[in-house]
Design goal:
single chain; 317 residues; alpha+beta; Extracellular Endonuclease, Chain A; 2 domains; 6 helices; 12 strands; globular
């Protein structure tokens, strides 16, 4: 008997099962555990979500892009809404974001789903959304999403894994919806990959070369998510080399990339880390005023020196 036959039959059965259950058909076999927590799996024909019932944010979203998918003309409707597939106490709704100062940031971006009205609408389920600092979401992160689509055009088929790492607070300090410390995005064609980890802080538009400061290897990502794996034959110890035309390769010269003993810079915690007891945290003065907390005095919960522009000890006056 051909020794390869059982493997071929298994792969065929897996693909058939994905099609029959209406789930995304993709080759990566991603972990379902985040730092010891069993993640809740949600899937459609267009994406696969691994959701934290504790943090109430997606920890990983997988999608597959092709040039044909990117030719669609469906427009976005911004129909953000709760995902009723989740247990009631783990659902996020629009009230959780109201007045927080954070954007509702897509993990699988709406612009990837112009080929289908259903897929586009599903991208606005809050199970595909996590709090993002506004300028980061609209500039640096948006640029990485554009580059992702460019890579898909080059490769013909691209599996994209987008996720969240850590915790830097919660929306409106309520302890319900975690604000991730960092976001990551990984591209793979099954043979090679690229991977970036970016802190969830204000980062404006970047040049292609500037993304190199945030590029890491899979092994470096595992410093922050030990269980992370994709089940593909990739060199986890070194940053990949996929699609240098979309984003230039990381310039490492004659020295190796960041050593495991030195955590990669992009995944470091934000310069200001809100207290882990979820004391009030306001991203900016607009958020503080919307919550009725302004002005904020030095020593008062929620006060940050970054919001005290004149240094008089009173912020957002």
């Amino acid at each position: 008997m051909n020794k390869a036959l059982p493997l071929l039959l298994l792969l065929a059965a897996t693909a058939a099962q994905a099609q029959s259950t209406g789930c995304l058909n993709q080759s990566a076999r991603v972990t379902s555990v985040y730092r010891g927590e069993q993640l809740f799996s949600l899937c459609t024909a267009d994406s696969q979500v691994s959701y934290s019932l504790t943090d109430r944010i997606p920890r990983l979203v997988v999608e597959v892009l092709t040039p044909a998918k990117l030719q669609g003309t469906v427009s976005r409707e911004d129909d953000f809404r709760a995902d009723v597939r989740l247990p009631l106490n783990a659902r996020v709704d629009l009230n959780d974001y109201r007045g927080s100062g954070y954007d509702r940031g897509h993990l699988a971006p709406a612009a990837d789903f112009k080929y289908s009205a259903t897929a586009m609408s599903n991208s606005f389920l809050l199970s595909n959304i996590a709090p993002q600092e506004p300028s980061f979401n609209q500039q640096a992160w948006n640029g990485l999403e554009d580059a992702t689509r460019a890579c898909a055009q080059q490769t013909g088929k691209l599996t994209v894994l987008t996720g969240t790492l850590g915790k830097s607070g919660s929306l409106n300090g309520r302890g319900r919806v975690t604000i991730p410390a960092s976001f990551f995005k990984m591209w793979t064609d099954g043979q090679d990959y690229r991977l970036w980890v970016m802190p969830n802080v204000a980062i404006n538009k970047l040049t292609g070369q500037q993304y190199g400061q945030y590029e890491v290897s899979i092994k470096q990502l595992q410093t922050y998510w030990p269980e992370f794996s994709v089940g593909l034959p990739l060199n986890a110890a070194q940053p990949g080399k996929l699609c240098p035309g979309a984003i230039p390769l990381k310039q490492i010269g004659s020295t190796p990339a960041v050593r495991p003993a030195t955590p990669p810079r992009p995944a470091a915690q934000p310069a200001y880390l809100p207290p882990r007891n979820d004391a009030p945290y306001y991203a900016n003065c607009a958020a503080a005023k919307a919550a009725g907390a302004a002005p904020l005095r030095r020593g008062q919960p929620g006060y940050r020196a970054a919001m005290d522009r004149d240094g008089d000890g009173v912020a957002c006056e």
